[in-house]
Amino acid sequence: MMSGILVISEHRNGELRPVSRELVGAAVALKDATGEPLRVAVIGEAPERYVAELKLAGVDEVLTVQAVVDAFDPEIYEASVRALIEARQPSLVLLAHSVDSLGYAAPLAVKNGYGFATDVFGIERDADGWVATRAGYGQKVNIEVDFPGRSVVVLTVRPGAYKPVETFGEPSVSAVPAPAVTPRSQHLGFEEPAGGDDVNIPGAEFIVSIGRGVGEEDNVEEFKELADSVGATLGCSRPIADAGWLPKARQVGQSGKTAAACKLYVAMGISGSVQHMAGMKHVETIVAVNTDPEASIFTIARYGIVGDIFDIGRELRNHF
Amino acid sequence: MKILVPIKQVATLDEDFEFREDGRDIDPDFLIHDLNEWDNYTLEEAMRLKEGPGGEGIEVVVATVGPESADEELRKCLAKGADRALRVWSDALEDADAIGVARVLAALARRESPDLIFAGVQATDHACGATGMALAGLLDLPHAAVVAALDYTPGSNSATVRRELEGGSYASVRIDCPAVLTLQLGINTPRYASLRGIKQAAQRPIEVLDAEALGVTADALGAAGSASRVRRMYVPEKGRAQMIEGTPAEQAARLAQIIKEFGGAA
Amino acid sequence: MRSSPDRSGTARRHWRELAERACTDEAPFAAAALYPYAAPRERAGLEARMFGERRDRLLLASAPFVAPAVLARLAALDDGGAVQLRLARNPATSAAALGALWRADASPRLRQLIARHARTPRAVLGQIAAAAGEIETLRALCENGGVAAEVLATVSERRIGVLQRLLAVNIATAEDTLLALWAEADDEAVRAQILLHPHCPDVLLATVPASLLERRCLARQQRAPRALLAELANDRDAAVRRAAAENPGTPLAALVANCFDADATVRHAVAARRDLPPALAGCLVDDADARVRRALARNPACPPELLVRPATDADAEVRRAAARHPHCPHELLDRLSRDEVTWVQAAVAYRDELPYAVLRRLARSSDVDVLAGVARHPATAPSRLARLAIHDCPDVRRAVILNPRTPRMVLRLLRQDGYALHRAMAVDHPRFADTDRWRMRDDPDVQVRFRVFQHFARRDAMPAAHEASVHVTQLSHYQPHPPKEHMETT
């Protein structure tokens, strides 16, 4: 009988990623509810350096797996997590829903026939086993999934969904033998995004974008300053670029750029044409500010503000 | 050389929708279909290689697992220059999750034996982010996820990719080929199909295959081949858009808080 | 409109073909484009296509570009909750149709949407204001952009605390109501909002309030007494000073000191004033903050002879601002058209009146922002437009379509454009010919077909039928035209 919760921590560039402590937060709550033991694993070239940080309250055991390189490699992680599962026989394995886990969680699950769901923000156990909740249809609905017939369930957990554990405990520490892997890819190095003044809509994580609501060209300046003061890249919808008020490089949407790396998108005075939404509707947190409460942009927004963009913009600047 | 581009017909929802009677999905009348946003980029990347130096012999094959309505999305790809389109379906696949779909694509890939597979990082509807990499696992091919730049010379036995990481930085990785890559939005600038291309694509054949005929056995098909099962679907209590109420000063204060929380998290 | 339209022979043949196509079109929109103009005997077939499937009824109910007549017909079909909700959310739904949707058994969500719809009949809103029970419905009513002051007064009389804010924000709220709200308000945010309201009672504008938020809002109130605004222009809070400096009601004499304000945003507000005297412009032209210089350079009140400085500024955005000044002298434009930063050149290209030599030089650029400006310039030659119409960059091609003077022969090049939006915009271009439009009736894009069908239906409609189409809105999803203000600039 499989029992126990296994958390796989993440690190990058020698630092434990904070989401690891959130995973422990999720697991501690489940441990309290089910009584299953909680183990946290770290995989790396010198995994012991992360152990102290992982001795978090509620954790029963910290597991280390030695890897040939410290940087993430999907095949090393996949084989290591498989070895960890075989060594400790957990019923639930929690990974962060992160760029790294996107590279190995699915291959791990599919090859071993584990139950599997991604980007979950709710986990429970009932008589039938583990039950996870994730979102669907562009976050408009919640979907509850279960895993009939699966003795091991692997879930990737949405960052920010659980409170991190910040206090420490006294778990035991063990090493799990590293599986033999011949990686077929090689980490060459990290690169920072190109700096400079060039407008980079696809690479921007935070975009404040303006649409027809700005009314006239002279008003664009106000939002340029707003974007500067809140630390955002200024984007715009097509009519603004077509009018020559902002460069085409700032245009978001089907005929412009895609806000590929964006995590927070504040749409001001943008009604939400299908063309515009094609370039940003995937963004996790969209805030829409519009005077029309039924503007289409609200249908994809996480937060909505019905109001005048100039009033909101002016007040917002007082906070920065 | 051959590049396989698996695509997905996604469904979007307008506000005020209704659920199916069993409560496990949306009433299909409310679903509006489209090609997954990511797939514009995967197809473009394949076309970019085909039209680039040394790409003369490249065949770009688009494939999907879906019912007849998905032909529309395959035709969009044909209109942009894909050489061939394949669709696999069987009614049992109605209940397949991303893993279940990957099993069918794997059977198809074994038949096609492509040199590269480009899948989208995720799909706009359910954003599982699992199909492409599960496919890599089933085929036991080298793989990299969330690729924002690709450097590959046709015929070469390795590629250099730039994976987009959290926080805006990148990891550069060399990977052996054949490989499966999931590509990120923004990796290129997708083209529009020409009007002529669209009209010609309407006449082009789409090969329709039955999952069983591809060798997907009953124990790997649909619900049986999936790693999860939908119990129920519901509208979250708070709804999707949380309206920020109050006077503009109060609304702006809350927005400032959201921005600061984001800054803290990044 | 119900009389049978009298169409010429060709028009009749066209109409027949369009009607046949509409009835077999894969989407219901082509039928919806014809419907308002169709004779009664033709309507049954179109209705069958539009309303036969629930999927199509749902699509039509939320389409803001279809004619109110289609939505009204749909509202009259008793069709369950989802279609009604979408109709109540659709801005094109008519008052009569909304009145029909308002029934005793309406769901809370439907009541809420009707309460918020700008076209809901006043009688219905009045009933809601007087009697509605759920707070969500009343809240929606207070957010309604088309609601009458009396209706809001009725809501206000019900003394519901959580609605105070929304009533203070709604610009339709009348003076009396605001005064009553002021008396009840125990919250500075609500009071501040009342001070900002265009109908704020004069008696509230007599003294400088204590709270910062109220001072900020009062400083923005154009009707505030000049003496009060002068006082606020010297407030200890920079945001208050900025607001006062932005307020056209603030006397200039009170703002001289603000030209030297320690806070750049205050100086910026002064530099942007439309009534800025040349002397103050002179004080600001060498300001240390680039944003101040930018605001000044684009301010029509900045004397053109002063623009030499910003036109040679080290900051490219300042130079661009000079290039956008409505009276920027030609010799400066000539220099700016050769600026090292293309975004500055683009600012020149987007000006309607340019020396020919400057326009010709800009046309040789390879930058898409500059070329887009050239492409929509009224003086650009057709031969050049023809070249730009096949440019690789869609933004440049679109600028050719946005140029109202682009001749038909050039537009024809765009009939085959790969981007459906461009084809849709070409259909609406005044210089596009009907023979070209007619060839697009089988366009693969549903929105393009909708426009073609709508064009011919309108053209061939009886004058009476035409009246019915006054409210036919543009395909709002496409938003083909830039903000109309652009047409008036430069």
From TrEMBL, chain B:
Q: Kindly give the SUPFAM superfamilies that the UniProt entry links to this protein.
A: Adenine nucleotide alpha hydrolases-like
Q: Which UniProt keywords apply?
A: Electron transport, Transport
* Domain Electron transfer flavoprotein alpha/beta-subunit N-terminal, residue spans: 23-218
InterPro entries named among the record's database cross-references: ETF_a/b_N (IPR014730), ETF_b (IPR012255), ETF_beta_N (IPR033948), Rossmann-like_a/b/a_fold (IPR014729)
Report the domain of life of the source organism: Bacteria
Family the UniProt entry places it in: Belongs to the ETF beta-subunit/FixA family.
Q: Name the chain's protein.
A: Electron transfer flavoprotein subunit beta
**Origin organism of this chain?**
Aromatoleum toluvorans
UniProtKB/TrEMBL annotation, chain C:
InterPro entries membership = ARM-like, ARM-type_fold, LRR_variant
Q: Where is this region: Disordered?
A: 467-490
**What is the residue range of the signal peptide feature?**
none
Entry protein name: Leucine rich repeat variant
Lineage runs: Bacteria, Pseudomonadati, Pseudomonadota, Betaproteobacteria, Rhodocyclales
Organism expressing this protein natively: Aromatoleum toluvorans
Where is the chain membrane-spanning?
none
For this protein, the record's Pfam families field holds: LRV
